[in-house]
Structures are given as structure tokens and as C-alpha cells.
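Kindly inspect this chain:
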Amino acid sequence: MIFENYSLPPTLNKHIEALFYFKDHMPEHTIERVVPTGHIFILFELDGFQRQTFDNKTLKPNGVFSQVWISGMHRNFISISAHTQSEMFVIQFKPTGAFPYLHFPLQEINEKVVAAKDVLGQEILALRDTILLAENTQTKFKIAENWLIQRFDAQKAPSTDLLDFTEKLQKEPVSRFKEIIEFYPYTQKQLIQHFKKYIGLTPKYYQRILRFNDILQRINKKEKISWVDITYNCGYADQSHFIKEFTLFCGFNPTKFIKQDFTKDRTNFFPIG
């Protein structure tokens, strides 16, 4: 598989997590789970394939997407189709980064995958066509960069206070959550409002996603895993609470998850069919 990641310029790296492109992805499965990472994505298909989403329990199709779509914040895993020889271009926003480019409160697309045309109009389809026809990958990246620079509305950028608070959540232990909230210079009600607008989730739920992804990283690094230690150090009430939370986010019991020995190349995608 061809995979390329763009080196973001200073004009973008405050709000954009990554621009990446892949081609000739050849999965051996037809459906995969995508676990929440705390990011919003704009996804451009460049291969002509329609993608589907599926009910997590029945695996019956419940959505069809083509050309360009936006994946909002999700509270647990979603099930999507996997295609051989797929080719895609992806914009991944930082947790607080999407609002200045999308221009609407992010809670509006919570738990949703939406056609980008429905919220961004024809311009996003024109962008997709231009990226598709670009002669090489670096040109694709430059086209996306220019579009993002033009879309950016500085008046909609998150405050330094919110950025600093979010960074503290990402770095500090779960046990310090109450102390971190006290660090925010506004009321708790205002903090929740700001989070829903700029991230889509409440601070507490966002921190739960961070905690889950931290555990995934430990597993991927093949660190010695003690569920008792994780339960205690990551702020779970007890081991059953941890197992329930882990299963909520990825659909796998933690012990069974480790036995699957999933590839480490795509740490938030897991085959199920």
C-alpha cells in the first residue's frame, strides 16, 4: 500500500492533525470497526467506490457515502465497509480544530457520518475533483492546503484558554480531572458549552476517549498489560467498569482484543468480517 503523510506548514498545524493519502489498500476483510480517537475527518474517495456504514449489532447497512463525507465525533466505534485497491485522501482535524473551517457547532454532527456536500456545498465536490485530477500526491496536498487556508475563519478559532485546557486533558492523568477543570477560567457550564461547540463532546467524555486510546497505545507497544493496574491507574471504579468501557469503545472484550493480535499499522481500524 502507498501511504503518504503531508508535512504541515505553520499556517495549518495549530488546527490540523494530518493530511494523508493512501492507495492500493488491500484488506482481507469486508467490514472493519473504527474506534473513536477524538478527531473529526473529511474523507475524499478517489477510487469511485461507494462506502457503507453498518449497524454495529446486526451489521445491516445503514448508510451509503461517495465522493466526500465528514465523520463527526463518535461516542463509540462505528462499522464501515473495507475495499480492495481503495484510494483516499483525508483531512484530520485536531480535537479543537474543525470549527474554524467547517463554520458550524461540532455537536451538530455528533454520532454522524454526513455527505460533505450537505454542509459545505458544491465547493467540496469541486475540491475533490481537483484533488482527483492532480498529477501527483504533493500537488494533491498543496491543493488541500490552499483550500484550508481559504476556508479558515480566524473569528471562529478556539481561545487560548480552551486550547490550553484541552492540552492539559491530553497530558495529565485522569485522576487530575477535577483539578484541570478548576484551571479553566470560566464556569463549568461554559466549559461544557465551549467543548460541545468546538469539539462536539463534553470534557469528561472526551477524556474517556483519550484514556481508551492511551490503553490501545500500551497494547500496541506490547507493554506488559495488567488489567488490575490499568483499572487502578486509569481511574476506573473497578475491573468490570474497565471491561465495559473498553468494549463500548471498540466492541471487543480486552482479553479477546489482545488475542486477535491486530496489525499495528492502522491502530484505530480493526477487521470484523
